[in-house]
Amino acid sequence: MSDEYNQKNAPLEAQSSDTISGTSGTPSKDIDYVRPAELPEQDLYHGHSFITKWIFCQDAKIIGVQYFLTAVFTGIVGLVLSWLMRLQLGYPDLVPFITAEHYYQFVTMHGMIMVVYFLTALFLGGFGNYLIPLMVGARDMVFPYVNMVSFWMFFIAVCVLMASFFVPGGPTGAGWTLYPPQAILPGTPGSNMGIILMLVSLSLFVIGFTMGGLNYIITILQARTRGMTLMRMPLTIWGIFTATALAMLAFPALLVSCIMMTLDKMLETSFFMPTIVQAGEVLDYGGGSPVLFQHLFWFFGHPEVYIVALPAFGIVSDLISVHARKNIFGYRMMVWAIVGIGGLSFFVWAHHMYVSGMNPWFGFFFATTTLIIAVPTALKVYNWIITLFRANIRMNTVMLFCLGFIVTFVNGGITGIFLGNVAVDIPLSDTYFVIAHFHMVMGIAPLMVIMGAVYHWFPLVTGRMLSEKLGKWHFWFTFLGAYSIYFPMHYLGFIGVPRRYFEMYDSPYVASATGLNEFITLAALIVGFSQLIFIYNIVSSLSIGKPAGKNPWKANSLEWLTPEVPPAHGNWGEKLPVIHRWPYDFNVPGAKEDYITQTTPPSEVISAEVEKT
Amino acid sequence: MDEIQNKEQSTSTHKIGIYLWIWGLLFVLSFFSYMVDWFAFQGFLRWTLILIFMFLKAGLIMAFFMHLYWERYALVNVLLWPMTAIAGFIILMAAEAKYTVFTRLLYFFIGG
Amino acid sequence: MHPGIIFLGVVVGSVLFHIYTPWWWTDIASNWGAMDDTINLTFWIGGGVFILVCLFMVYCVFKFSYKEGRKVEYKPEDHKLEKILTIATTVGVIALLAPGLIVYNNYINTPKNALQVEVNAWQWGWQYRLPGEDGILGTAQVAKISDNNPFGINLDDPNGKDDILIEDDVLHLKTNRPVKILLRSLDVLHNYYVPQFRAKMDAIPGIITYYWFEPNKIGEYEVLCAEYCGVGHYAMRAKVIVESEYNYKSWINEQETFSDLIAKQENNKLKKILIVKNND
Amino acid sequence: MSDNSLNNLPGGFKGMSHDMGSDQTAFKGVQWGKVMMWIFLLSDTFIFSCFLISYMKGRTSTVVDWPNTSEVFSLHVGGVPVPLLLIAIMTFVLITSSGTMALAVKYGYEKNRKMCGWLILATAIGGLTFVGMQVFEWSKLIHEGVRPWENPFGAKQFGSFFFMITGFHGTHVSIGVIFLFIYARKVFRGDFDNGKRGFFTTMKSDYVAIEILGLYWHFVDLVWVFIFAFFYLW
Question: DSSP for B43-73?
Answer without folding.
Answer: HHHHHHHHHHHHHHHHHHIIIIIS-GGGS-H
